Amino acid sequence: xxxxxxxxxxxxxxxxxxxxxxxxxxxNAATAEDLNKDADxxxxxxxxxxxxxxDISKKAKAVLVFPKxxxxxxxxxxxxxxxxxxxxxxxxxxxxxxxASWGLQAGAESYGYVxxxxxxxAEKYLDKSKGWEIxxxxxxxxxxxxxxxxxxxxxxxxxxxxxxxxxxGLMASISIEGTKISRIKR
Length: 186
Description:
globular, about 190 residues, about 40% strand, alpha+beta, 5 helices
């Protein structure tokens, strides 16, 4: 009985690991040109569906766009996606977004997210750190419908604001807390 349970757990871990490896290798195949195009389209989608994001973008020092994050899990899970950092509408650098989790979870989904860097502190932290773990370092406010109601371009006080959009798939919840963002070469 105990051996059977251990084998089942190992099988689940292996399935999650192989799924994430397949996802990350597929996501890694995009060219810089494709990623730039996808990031631009993702921003336009966000601005059409969320006018507050369009207003915030006008005050942002830089914008970090992850057009497609793939998340999958079965007990153990994770997510991966690649993004573009823009400043004054010009591509500055490329980053990846990675997270891992364990617990009661099953399913897969995709989504995009954009982080508007509002302060020099946030921009410098992203540039100097060897990876920004969301929830550590500059304050990031995840903007949902409730937060958006009380947000205007004059009330922006935090270092960064994140918008999650274009969710598709079947997972119980979504969060960028604990996500690590690291610079990649393109």
